Amino acid sequence: MNTAPADPAVAEEPRWLTDEEQRVWRAYLHATILLDDHLDRQLQRDAGMPHIYYGLLVALAEAPGRRLRMTDLAKHAKITRSRLSHAVARLEKNGWVRREDCPSDKRGQFAVLTDEGHQVLAQTAPGHVATVRQAFFDRLTPEQQKSLGEILQIIAEGLQPKEAGADLPWLR
Amino acid sequence: MNTAPADPAVAEEPRWLTDEEQRVWRAYLHATILLDDHLDRQLQRDAGMPHIYYGLLVALAEAPGRRLRMTDLAKHAKITRSRLSHAVARLEKNGWVRREDCPSDKRGQFAVLTDEGHQVLAQTAPGHVATVRQAFFDRLTPEQQKSLGEILQIIAEGLQPKEAGADLPWLR
DNA sequence: GGCTCATCATTGAAGGTTAAACAAAAGCGG
DNA sequence: CCGCTTTTGTTTAACCTTCAATGATGAGCC
Predict the structure, then answer these.
(1) What is the domain partition of chain B in residue ranges?
(2) Phi, psi of B103 (to 5 degrees)
């Protein structure tokens, strides 16, 4: 009905997804929403915070001095500074993170993982890893894992907010 | 520091992710948050609604009579009925969806796509497909697409809210 | 110094999501 | 028909995210 090839006039009719592409796309949408919800529920239940907040604590725990500039943490977690600001405010209220002024740049703030925050992480990390394994890794062959990693990296690289290639694409 | 193998006493120490698994997992987290944000922003800008709401309209457009019971629509979109209730309320306020009583079940409600809603879909679908292509399909080989589809389907199936197998050729 | 522009981080308001509680109707077993 | 449980969909309040606006500092330039 509408797959006619030529019509260079005005509207540039779109290339709709093929049946096969639709299957892939829906699998993507379904898998990601189910997995995200699953992890959010697990962490909300066992750690009292959403998945993304947990990721912030992990990033801080791995950073030298267990601290990161707000902008760096936001880039690391792929979220806006605004969102991070709200998130850190909440984590600060929990006592898991504290803010510190940056001495070399008076605009700057460090988010610092507190001992209490580190402890929460230590207590909840095993359960979280188990959940990730059970929902994700345990269901895939090593080949599938490798393939998936490559594919997702391509997708992610295509969406980095410009400035990619500035520093190393991989962690470390 | 703590990867000693044996300690069958109490704590069942967790199997942490290997370096390779960590790379895959972070690629997953990064790709999905970047892509979700990307699509949300595109649709918010061009259609005035978040991605998930757009998906609801698509589901209704494809359903017979352009209508679906609330519970069916929620299952289709993989969201809770509560979330759907809020979403439909908003879409109704936009005039893109209306509710109708179900004659055979007085508790039931249909969400029905209005003509106006259908028109919004027709106007914004081309741009959305183009965005999906550009961010997703255009970057992957056919083999990668196939592989990804299979993998994601496995993940999704593992997380379906039970009730799978309901229609297996079982004794009734 | 003084000017301009970019960057850092936060804020407030509007909107979206979650979890628990609820009412109404349906199903089910006696 | 009667009680009991389940299903359906909504509601409320708390929480989270987004967007635009803001203040404050830094950087470059003359």
Answers:
(1) 20-152
(2) -70, -35
- Distance in Å from D29's C1' to A105's CA comes to 21
- Please give the structure tokens belonging to residue A103: 């001495």
CATH architecture for segment(s) A21-140: Orthogonal Bundle (1.10)
Non-local CB neighbours of A29 within 8 Å, separated by 6+ positions: B55, B78
pLDDT tens sequence across B54-77: 999 999 999 999 999 999 999 999
Per-residue pLDDT at B14: 85
Question: Of A56, A51, A49, A92, nearest to A77 (Cα)?
Answer: A56
Chain segment B120-155, per-residue pLDDT in tens: 999 999 999 999 999 999 999 999 999 999 999 999
Q: In what order do the strands lie in the sheet with A109-113?
A: A67-69, A109-113, A97-101
User: Which chain B residues are Cβ-neighbours of A126 within 8 angstroms?
Assistant: 13-14
CATH architecture of B20-152: Orthogonal Bundle (1.10)
Chain D footprint positions (protein CB, under 7 Å): 7-12, 15-21, 23-27
CA distances from B148 to A28, B10, B140, B161 (A): 8, 39, 10, 22
All residues of chain B having their beta carbon less than 8 Å from the beta carbon of residue A32 are: 32, 36, 152
- Nearest-CA distance B103 → chain A (Å): 31
Q: Measured at the alpha carbon of residue B141, what is the angle toward residues A26 and A142, in degrees to the nearest 5?
A: 75
Tell me which of A25, A40, A131, A163 to substitute to probe the interface with B (most B C-beta atoms closer than 10 Å): A25
| 172 residues of chain A, pLDDT tens digit each | 555 555 556 667 789 999 999 999 999 999 999 999 999 999 999 999 999 999 999 999 999 999 999 999 999 999 999 999 999 999 999 999 999 999 999 999 999 999 999 999 999 999 999 999 999 999 999 999 999 999 999 999 999 855 444 443 323 2
Contact flag, residue B44 CB and nucleic strand D, below 7 A: yes
Residues on chain B touching A164 (C-beta within 8 angstroms):
none
Residue A74: the pLDDT is: 98
Q: Is the CB of B107 under 7 A from strand C?
A: yes
Spatial contact of A73 and A57, defined as CB atoms under 8 Å apart: no
